[in-house]
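Q: Sequence in, structure out?
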Amino acid sequence: MSEESKNALTPVGEVLAGALSRLLVRGRGSVGRAAEAGRIRLELRQIQKDRDAFWIRLGKTAYHLVGDGEIEDHPALRKAIERIDALEQQVAELQGRSDLADEDS
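A: Exactly. Output:
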C-alpha cells in the first residue's frame, strides 16, 4: 500500500474510532439507566409485597379480635368473618375428600 493510501485511511480510522467511542459511552449510560430503573422496580415490588403482607396480617388480627370479643362487632366485619368461616369449611371438606382419594389410590 502506498504512503498516500495509508494517509487517506488514517482519518477514516480516526472517525470510526471516535464514533465507536461515543457509541460505547452512550451504551454505558443507557445500561446504567436501565439498571437503576430495574433496581427501583424491584424495590417497589418488595415494598408492595410487604404492604400486602401487613394487610393480610391486619385482617387476621381483626378476625381474631372480633372472634374473641376484644373489638366491637361491625356489620362489615361480621359479613367478612362469616365468608371466611364458610371458605374455611369448604377447604376442610375438600382436604378431607382429597385425603380419602389418596387413601383409595
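The chain has a mean pLDDT of 85.
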